[in-house]
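To close the section, here is one more complete example, presented without commentary so you can practise reading it yourself. The ligand is flavin-adenine dinucleotide.
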Amino acid sequence: MPDALLTTAHEELRRRVRDVRDRVMVPFLQRRGWERPLSGDELKTLLRMTVPLGYPGAVVAKADGGAGLDYLSLGVLVEELAPVLGFVAAHVVPRQIALLGSPAQKRRYLPALLAVERLSTTAITEPGVGSDAGAIAMTARRAGARYVLDGTKTWLTIGTIAEVATVLVSTDPAAGPRGLSRLIVDLDHARLASTTFTTLGDRLLPFAQVRFEGYEVPIENRLGEEGEGLRTTLRAIQASRASMATHAVGIAQAAIDAAVAYAKERRQFGRPIGSFQLVQGMVADMIAETEAARLLANRVWAMLDRGEDCAREASIAKFYATEAALRVTSKAIQIHGAYGVSDRYPVERLFRDARMLTFPDGTSEIHRLLVGRAALGLDAFR
Ligand SMILES: Cc1cc2nc3c(=O)[nH]c(=O)nc-3n(C[C@H](O)[C@H](O)[C@H](O)COP(=O)(O)OP(=O)(O)OC[C@H]3O[C@@H](n4cnc5c(N)ncnc54)[C@H](O)[C@@H]3O)c2cc1C
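Output:
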């Protein structure tokens, strides 16, 4: 459904993304199945299908090898890819490097990431450090021209197949949150010990815990200054939060489309179930919540396009949209009756994938506290 912030160019991009998604990506995934993790080669094959659309370098400037699109276009790409791929975060590391990297870092990393010759992820979370990112325990000790990394990162999306990660480390443990730095790390899996999680949703993606022991990284791989890791992470995170919100909108919209089709075709009491008022009520609630979530997410993309601070708006969009997707996908299952919890229809997978989204890039609770702090001027964290 068009909204006031989107132009005909955005809608034309949406049409092209849907065409590639439905014509080549969905058949690829249907052939190999949705329930086991993609190999690196499989994920690269899928993501390369999106390169002609401008992904994953949508908002990376043309001068840096990206597509030079606006953030609203990135939103369109994320919304349309999310119901089938899940790994819409492919844009995150290239965007971070384009935003925060030195000219040499951009030259070294962006071409392969933008062409999807290499896969990337972000590494912040640790076994003992989730929401409180300022408490990072993984250390990076200087040894001549290198940092030596020791510690464990966890929940890395595509952690066993990513070849590059931006990693938040402590370069000065005595300084606490002011001693954190962000490094670009080449992941040589032969020298890393990894274990994977079996997850409720997003089963195409290997989520991993990765142990770094005496792992050397050149000092020139630091993104920004020493001690600025938390600040630079927060600078790039608003677009990631908008992306999570839009990801949820994409899943919710796919659930609506499936539920509407089913409600028109399934007959009970001699009529399509969609003619019953209680079913129409569910459909109307699903549509209202999804459109509200889309507007909230697109407001953030538009603010990013205007270069405005959107921390509060990104938090509202993130927690509202991800929770709305849970309610919407659950109603979509209800409309499908018992078939809704079977794998004959896509809605159970969409529900499981939606359940993954209220944690990454800040949990719902953390975002409520951020919005509350902005409203009240009172900080719940300290
Ligand atoms: C699908 C998915 C992808 C992910 N991808 C990545 C990735 O690529 N890289 C990465 O580094 N991490 C990733 N993560 C991890 C994610 O960033 C963490 O799950 C998140 O930061 C929360 O940390 P936690 O799960 O340890 O929960 P905790 O911080 O331990 O929180 C547990 C519960 O307590 C609540 N809570 C915590 N503090 C407060 C508070 N002050 N007030 C009220 N409630 C509070 C939380 O909201 C939550 O409900 C991913 C997670 C998921 C599910």
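Once you have examined the tokens, check your reading against these statements. Residues 121-125, 130-131, 155-157, 202, 356, 359-360, 363, 365-366, 369 surround flavin-adenine dinucleotide (CB under 6 Å). The longest strand covers residues 146-157.
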